[in-house]
Design a protein that fits this description.
Structural class: alpha+beta
Largest sheet: 6 strands, mixed
Helix content: 25-40%
Strand order of the largest sheet: 2-6-5-4-1-3
Number of strands: 14
Oligomer: single chain
Radius of gyration: 19 Å
Length: 212
């Protein structure tokens, strides 16, 4: 298990609930070399006096060295936690998803706001449409399989596509990957309406075009 020790005086932001730990706030990282190099591995975060502060996903290649999963010492980071977080995010966005028309895009998971740092999930076309996922941090990338499994189980949507921002992934030291994670890829363009205006949307890239 990795142990991140925070510099004296730098723990104030964590105690206030800040979920990001920058390289400049870290005194040292203890653990096996292979654990330190594993992007998204879980680490215990402690103060300079060895007081427990959090459990976080560690990434040695990112300026945001760690992203907090939990401030609760009694809450392990495991499949159950990931499943709970995804289900809670979907429950929060359920009303908007239910009201959405087939030609609307709905945000289902919103990263840190849903305690899933770096994970963005949108839905188009309801249950028979597509889930579009972006894994913008190493922690959620490491838990990609249970995240996708839970999304499918809870929404009933079988088509899951991974969209990637190359610059964001590069900044996290993650490979640029995109493509279908389950089911079918979305078509090159779908019609979408926002505030009464129609667009053609490429779900794979997020780019919008004038409706043709």
């Amino acid at each position: 298990m990795l142990i991140i020790t925070i510099k004296q005086g730098k723990e104030k932001s964590l105690l206030a609930g800040e979920p990001w730990i920058y390289a400049s706030a870290i005194d040292k990282v203890d653990g096996k070399p292979n654990e330190k190099m594993k992007a998204g591995g879980t680490a215990i975060v402690q103060s300079s006096s060895t007081k427990f502060l959090a459990r976080a996903a560690y990434n040695s290649k990112s300026q945001i060295r760690a992203r907090v999963w939990t401030f609760d010492e009694g809450e392990p980071v495991d499949h159950a936690l990931i499943k709970r977080r995804v289900k809670a995010a979907l429950a929060k966005s359920a009303a908007a998803a239910k009201k959405a028309r087939p030609d609307q895009v709905v945000k289902l998971v919103n990263a840190e706001a849903d305690s899933l740092p770096g994970l963005l999930v949108e839905q188009y076309g309801g249950k028979d449409g597509y889930l579009i996922c972006e894994f913008q941090a190493a922690g959620v990338d490491a838990w990609k399989v249970p995240i996708v499994q839970t999304l499918i189980a809870e929404t009933g949507c079988r088509n899951v596509y991974e969209r990637a921002d190359e610059l964001v992934r590069k900044g996290e030291g993650l490979p640029f990957v995109e493509g279908a994670l389950a089911g079918d890829e979305p078509p090159d363009e779908v019609p979408v309406t926002e505030n009464g205006v129609k667009y053609a949307l490429d779900l794979k890239t997020g780019e919008r075009y004038k409706f043709r």
